Amino acid sequence: MTENTARKKPKKVFLEGPINPQFVADSISKHSSKTDIGAHNIFMGQVRADVKGGKEVIAIDYSTYREMAEKEFHEIRESAFIQFDLNCMHIYHSLGLVNAGEISLFIFVSSKHRDECYKASRFLVEEIKAKVPIFG
User: Fold this and answer.
1) What is the CATH number of the domain that holds 120?
2) How far is the CA of 102 from the CAs of 34, 48, 58, 98, in angstroms?
3) DSSP H/E element including 94
4) CA-CA distances (angstroms) from residue 131 to 70, 72, 112?
5) Per-residue pLDDT of the chain (136 residues; tens, 9 = 90+)
6) What are phi and psi of 74, to 5 degrees?
7) Which of 74, 76, 108, 109 is the most exposed place for a label (fewest CB within 10 A)?
8) Is the full-model pTM beyond 0.85?
């Protein structure tokens, strides 16, 4: 995709609470009619029950500076469309309380070929972790 065609309006990224597995399934299902796509890649971030300070993590309460975060998400998304030959992309991140074992990040990329999906997915995860002001 070229820089001229990549520019799109910002998408809704944040969801309150955990990302429901049915939401993920519905997102996948909606793509069956898109016959120009040959590959999908999905990344899901899940809250781990790590031990911190001698106590097991039972949940993370995510917060953000929404305006800043939405701007960063938009720029990362646009950059991925410019760098990789993608047909579509969906990014969702939780805000609020997410229990251990629940999904807090859902990235779904689609393209004609798998290599672009793999590369774009990795790029998106790393850029989000490095640049988006989400706290938890």
Assistant:
1) 3.90.1170.40
2) 29, 9, 10, 6
3) strand 86-99
4) 11, 7, 28
5) 444 445 566 788 999 999 999 999 999 999 988 999 999 999 999 999 999 999 999 999 999 999 999 999 999 999 999 999 999 999 999 999 999 999 999 999 999 999 999 999 999 999 999 999 999 9
6) -60, -45
7) 74
8) yes
Burial degree of 109 (CB within 10 A; 0-12, 13-18, 19+): buried
Paired tokens of 24: 């993920």
End-to-end CA distance of the chain: 34
Residue 109 is part of which domain span?
A: 3-31+38-135
Q: Radius of gyration of the chain from Cα atoms?
A: 16
User: How many domains in the chain?
Assistant: 1
What does the H/E/C string look like for 41-60?
EEEEEECCCCEECCEECCEE
